[in-house]
Amino acid sequence: TGIAENHYLNPANLKNQSIYMSFSNNNLIYDLKGQKFSFVSSLSNNNFLFSFESMKSANIPIYGNSSSDESSEGYFDSYWYACEFGQNFSLNNFFKNAKDFSFGFKIRGSIYKLFTAKESDYSINLGFIKKINKQINLGFAVNNIGMKNGRSLYNQNFTLDSFEEFGIGVSYLSPNDTFSILSDFYFRDDALVYKFAVKTNFSMFNFSIGTTQIDRYKDFCYGLSINLNNLEIIYGYLVYGDDERNTLGSPTSIQFSAKF
Q: Across 44-200, where does the E strand assignment appear?
């Protein structure tokens, strides 16, 4: 959650991002495991993002066609590698009446293997943010432009953001700056995706909770972070809203980052 705040969800938010380097270790369902390296720096008074992400598993089960088949018939391996580049621009550098507007783009190239098929793909994300006042930001994003194989990936993982989609979000910062409330709406194919989160903004220890709802799908997640001068450790955990999905495992992530 965070179209109006998070630079991963909206590249226009790179405008407010500190220079940093991060590494994360991620675990998803079906024993999918991976890592992500990210780097944000400045370029001509604007910030840019570079990241590389990998994910793979050799233990994804194959089940029979009958609903009574409880044991798998075998296993197959899968992998996914992606590289991203993004940058933000302040629109008031180009338009006189665009004060507090920021624009950003992100390009992703990926290769992956699913069952026996090996594919490559690309996508483009575009985003805008508008600072309304000290407490409120608005964000707008268009994601996965040009992506060819999103539907086949989405059918394997209902939570994967692989369709072309439009999103709008708002962030509210409390008057004493101690917590933020974030809310997003995505229009994806024929589905409306709703995300909501609350997070604290203290100097050392912080906590966040959030939820995502799509038709019959629902999840709940929480995060913990520790800031030690310019070093930060973030841990995230997600629980599905139905018991059947929870048997597949609960995604987790731990990230280490250093600010410069």
A: 46-62, 74-90, 101-114, 117-131, 136-145, 165-173, 179-188, 191-200
